[in-house]
Amino acid sequence: MKVCLIEPPKYVSLTNFVSTISMPPIGMAYIAAAIRESGHDISVVDAPGLAPRNYYNYKDVVRVRGLTQDEILARIPSDAQVIGLGCMFTSHWVYVRELVGRIRASFPDAFLVMGGEHVTGFPEFSLEEAPLDCVVLGEGEETIAQLLDHVEKGLPLEDVAGLAYRDDQGDIRVNSRRQRMKDIDAIAKPAWDLFDIPRYNEVNQPHGSSQGKFIPMLATRGCPFSCTFCTSPNMWTTEWIPRDYKLVVDEMQEYQRDYEVSDFQFEDLTAIVRKDWIVGFCDEIIGRNMKVTFQLPSGTRSEGIDFEVAQKLKAAGCHEFSFAPESGDPRILRAIKKKVDLPKMFESARSALDAGINVGCFFIIGFPEDTYRSVLKTYGAIIQCALIGFTNVNLNAYSPQPNTESFKALQKEGVIKDFDDEYLMSLFTFQDFGARKTSYNSKFGDWELSLMVNLGVLIFYIVYFIRKPARIIHLFSDLGSDSSSNKTTKMAKSFFKDAFTILKNKWIKA
Known about the structure:
With 510 residues, the protein is α/β, with parallel strands linked by helices.
């Protein structure tokens, strides 16, 4: 069958630093490889990657990066039989929903399917709101292969695990979930030949700090923990499965050869769980005398990192990673099921910093269980991060992501009653320092929560720069270089790059 996959454009805000990241879509690259391995004809429209410096306003509500909807439609092959899209973030659904409607109008006979964390969390809602034929729930490689086989042969979709779909009568059916793939070493490597990797490197705005030409990778899948606010338990279950680290290093060398990359951005949910695995991985890189750097920007666990492991990581090329305690209050950690021992985490961070690795940290305030006292404790933890020498702190407001344990509790209490566009868009602004947050805590108002988030970030950077004023010089010297010494300077560079391009585009249009 002729299959076209579409990576939709992304929202971008200069004060939402996560949105300024420009990374090749590794999830779609894996799905494209699975489709091709199944014998189908595959094409890809990577809207953010094909126009990474094109910004336009959407409904005067948000700025979008990538191809316009008209440009996307023009790139879909006219004979496409199956059109698939991804939607990771629920906040993007407002835009993606409209795009799906336009695709359906232009390709009325095509089979439309969508995957990603949004539709996994909101399958019925997604099928009710958009003219999709079905959505894939959770891990998608096996499901998409079986789905295409059934569509091609005209077989009933009720036999395909991991699907929600609209039946012949128009009713929505949700099949049982597919079991997680155990032999992840057998999964086809991402089909990066279908994406413009050099263009992403020209933009040079990776997830972690920039240390040269980069490419995203996965060494493990899943996370063994069940935090109440996280979508991972629903998307991936709580099973953590590592790949054979020798095969991971083989893949790194393949990308060095094929794409001339030297920096690897590991997008694993929780890369470091087993000490023996990470030590073996590092030894393999060192033993092959590879000249590489790698980052763990999504956050990882501290339990497996002592000074011995940190030295191994540094020798293998690890430049930066982050921890994600989320709160500085042990009471909140228990309430959100975040199994973190803060003193041990700080001890682990000191070991990494002593080994020469940059360390960042993720915090959230505004959990339904938060109080002023717990926020002050989080501020205390943030100050401790700055004093110890963490190179960045990412502080966000709490947001109720679909189908998480915390989300369901808010639904039961009547705090969340419907899923209108205001709610959907609030899931983008919770990371935006220039926007009003939506508070789901009865003790804090929206603007109060917004100010508390911004104050926490300000506290960190005041202490960070006062502790070592020379960092201000390093920041400005980094702005003129191709690399970034840490994630803080990378975020500053991304801000100025995007701001300059947006102003330049406005000047040209004027």
